[in-house]
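FORM 7B - TANDEM STRUCTURE REPORT

SECTION 1: FIRST PROTEIN
SEQUENCE AND TOKENS:
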Amino acid sequence: MAWSGARPPRLRLPPPPLLLLLLLLLAPALSAAAERRPGPGPGPAEKLLVFTVATKETDGFHRFMRTAKHFNYTVKVLGKGEEWKGGELSNSIGGGQKVRLLKEGIESYADQEDLVLMFVECYDVIFAGGPEELLKKFQETNHKVVFAADGLIWPDKRLADKYPVVRSGKRFLNSGGKCFIGYAPYINRIVQQWNLQDNDDDQLFYTKIYVDPLAREHINITLDHKCTIFQTLNGAVDEVLLKFEEGRVRARNSVYDTLPITIHGNGPTKIHLNYLGNYIPNAWTRETGCSICDLDLLDLSTVTEYPRVKIGVFIEQPTPFLPKFLDRLLTLDYPKEALSIFIHNNEVYHEKHIKKFWEKAKNIIRNIKIVGPEENLSQAEARNMGMDLCRQDKACEYYFSIDADVVLTNPKTLRILIEQNRKIIAPLVTRHGKLWSNFWGALSPDGYYARSEDYVAIVQGNRVGVWNIPYMANIYLIKGQTLRSEMKEKNYFMREKLDPDMALCRNAREMGVFMYITNRHEFGRLISTANYNTSHYNNDLWQIFENPVDWKETYINPNYSKIFTDNIVEQPCPDVFWFPIFSDTACDELVEEMEHFGQWSGGKHQDSRISGGYENVPTDDIHMKQIGLDNEWLHFIREFIAPVTLKVFAGYYTKGYALLNFVVKYSPDRQRSLRPHHDSSTFTINIALNKVGEDFQGGGCKFLRYNCSIESPRKGWSFMHPGRLTHLHEGLPILNGTRYIAVSFIDP
């Protein structure tokens, strides 16, 4: 491009020699005073005007404006409401519309010789420093115009040889971004030469001016080779580190040891910019925590009518503890008249659970739509269907998607997410005892999981806030208006070979819709669906290894912890200790499991299940091994029985080992009682699995040495007593009904 510029502004004459000498003598003192003095630096901030182009107000635009407001920049936004005709800039040339808008926008400022103009992108740029620092750094360059520099060349690599050689720093005018600063008349000279179309390439336009030696010298253009003012991230992600200062956060270029004023996520680095934007300039600091979490909150306590929410429930594989998951939906702290539910159940096994839930919920929730396995929908199709139900219903203000593997323990979750007032937001849920969660902090180059620097700190709650993230799954809230505007297409869960959640997140990112995760509250956890065997009658009994927290909540007596805090252990007979261990659910399901198996031994002496094949004092029983529960039962003993043993038999540390673990069935027509005997154990546990007076009459246990009987065992409570020598005992006869007990001979 040949240079044809307007006449440059008149040059100012140098000061007289005497005045110059005086200024030289005073310079050190003035400089030191300036460094000590807070407030404006080398030039007044009102002599700086920032231009940007935004035809749409995206999440990126609002973030840019927030950082600009933080530093009190004056920003003039061009192109508002105008149709974008500059092309798809994410992967192709274009952007000429921005030059045309800037050309029109600065005409009225072209003659202001002392006015500094800055042009930056806004969708993928944040400010990290203030106007005074910016002006100081610009003036120190001693050039009229400064462009951002890059280590990569775009869009025409053939122009590389025309660039001036630099000894240190980045050589090329920044690729993919158009960020520059300069005096108004000189910026005007550049953009006035634009006579191309809106979809022509702005990058090539600026590049050709810069690589023209005459134009470069005449306008006095340079590049910010060492990222003093502008930091572009493409090709430089590893150079940029967070620098935590007191009450603020900067981005530091570790190669040049500079603190750039702007950070630009050009090219494929927008995800990394989002990570940096979670901190810079003051979004989260070590001193203040999250300073933007309470911005633009929606206070539900002030509304007369709660927003309507469509809840999308997805049961895509056999899932442990599903009835409890469904029941939690009805305990959400949210007006039920404002809720409707869409359920996709892909598992025949869970149809019985869905039916029970529908019977409970049909008179509570105004609308419930269930799509079962007979519809043969793929996961992506089902998720598209659920989301579209909200999209098509203008009364639907939020879509709350939740997978069946989410244990939502906080009933206020829905309210909290709505009040946070983001287009897409997810509550943090994690796998118990692991770093596995429902979000990714970064992506690998091929779009899969990568761990961000702050991932562990967020998961473990060492950094608390609302975080802009590239991927979320399992549970999230989306505004209905977002579904009807930015995300109005019906197919967001199908894309190439991506799984549905990855497809959704990629589409949201490309639409410029930010996704957030919040860990400001405890919300719940994720359960594991791995190795979930549905061949049993009550399959959750086997989940003590995969999902120990849920197993404990479901099957351990709620008063178990009081054994150690409130000393509720009773001693009805000498060295016979009585304490709560099982919930009613555990008792009922264990009995159901045994009856479903049905192979009761009949109380015979000949017993091939035991060593030697002979039982001296037989019971009518089923062994845990017979139903495949032995390993889980031994783990239960070590986790929950062993601590009680140490408490009541001080100094004895059990190995938690037992050869015989079984459920006994007493009934008048099979086995009414059990004759006196010792157990082949160091100690024995005997857990009552049903209720005397309701399920049976009579029964109990008598310890003959002490002439002490326990005739009213409590459901879910266990006896613990020595097995040999001192505690000869017998099973007292039942009168009617059926009595069940679970027994283990521990440390034989």
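SECTION 2: SECOND PROTEIN
SEQUENCE AND TOKENS:
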Amino acid sequence: GFAVERDMHAGAFAAVRAVLNNYDEMSGLDPEDQRLVEHMEKQFRRNGVQLGAEQRQRVSWIDKRLGKLEIDFVRNISQDKSCVLLSCQELDGLPAEFFSNRKVKLSDGIKKLVVATRPADIKLVLQHATSEATRKTAYVAHANRCPENIALLREAVDLRLEKATLLGYASYAEYALEDSMIKNPGAVVEMEMDLVAKLLPLARKEMAQLCALKREEQEAAGLTFTGIYEWDYNRYTAQAAAQQSKLDVGQVKEYFALEMVLPGVLQLYASTLGLNIVEANGCSDVWHPRVQHYRVWEADGSAFIGDVLLDLYERPDKYQEIAVWPIRPGFEREDGSRETPVSALVASFPEPTAAVPHLLSHNSAISLVQALGHIFQNLCAKSKWACCKLPRDYMTISAQMFTQWMWQPAALRTFARHYQTNEPIPEELCARLAAAKAPNSALKELRQVFRGLYDIDIHTNGNFDVRSHYNEVAARVALVNNGDADVGKAATLAHLMEGYSGLYASFMLAAMASSDMFESRFATDIASPRAGADFRAEVLQPGGSRDPATSIERFLGRQPTSQAFLT
């Protein structure tokens, strides 16, 4: 496409190198302009402009083909219509709202409910269904969605390696990480394996607790305990959290109605970052009537910051995960005025009914807060040039930091209100939410670690079977037990086809750094205007105009550590 041709333009590359190699001209530029020149020259080289004509043509073809593979991979997930048919008896234990307006089909003369294999349905079944056979059926169907994607991932891994080799890199992982904060595959493996060493002993203790819960439940039902399998994970981790915190998940959801949480979280971001967020009613310049449009200003009204578009509710063939896309970046125009950014958040939450709004789980609310963090990263960046993009790992750090609000009573009580009474979430329930954070935390974090190691493995050594290796790393690192089920979850690991190939470890780096940043600057005042102003000035506003490590160190006054994350 056009982007590939633009990024392979030999004339533009020659012009950039002429500036870069002219000491007098470079020294006369301000630091941001110098960074732009260096960035552009590096990107041209990473695109292969310096290669011979035949190799350039091959790299250009690979980039176009990868773009097609990535689009097809994600489209297959979003358009997946697979489902399982389960009877009301098989779905014993599910909450009443699960059955509301659900389609029914006849199977062997028996009325059965249609349960989509999308995450929203399957997570509820895996957590609440009392029948292990039902949980296994639902899990296997969910884990084997989009089998055609395995071939797409395999081809993408091969093409990425070929491109990296043509460009002179030892592996695609080395190529991908060159522009990140963590820099090289060896550093990723060292970080991830250090986490495995620290988390695995704790995870084994957590797994023993899950085994005890399942054994007790099965013995009470006269069944034989055979082990904890992946289809058991959601059910017994929820039970372990509830047992330790005395937390009623259903009660918690009553305080997280999406229509009430959203404006409250937006206001918390606004007060922390010094912004004024106003819904733009009656705007027709959007792609669907359900899209909400917000305009963002400086709190004192002195300047317009940008536009936010929120497309939150499900519809046929829509992308199923929660994600953020910067529709238009901000930059400085030639006349000195500013082009303001536009950023969109897309999710697929079920539509509310007339009787009950859509009630978010605590985890879904966390995902919403994190996605809004990406929105404000895009809006508050104020660099001169739009093309100096942030490394993926840095973007994840700044977006993830404010998810810490989700365990802080002072934050929760500003936006978590009962959907019927409008009463703020009780302090006692906040305390139980905080207590529920600790159970199974090592198991949960190891699931991110193993995906990062899998990503590095397949993008360092292309000889792995991408389907079976996923399961092998999951079992070895994160204690994932699929029993006798043959599953292919790599087929729906969309991040590896959405810009995080070779970079999945960004999520763990972000978790460690963002925990440190929040604990250091916001622990005593969760919406501190001073810390918020510093965060905006030192972390968000510079955007890609300087080294991200410098931005984090200026905000913290030191280099980040993993201590807050591990305690």
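SECTION 3: OBSERVATIONS ON SECOND PROTEIN
The beta strands are 83-86, 104-107, 110-116, 275-279, 292-298, 304-313, 323-328, 331-332, 338-339, 342-349.
The mean pLDDT is 92.

SECTION 4: SIGNATURE
Preparer initials: ____
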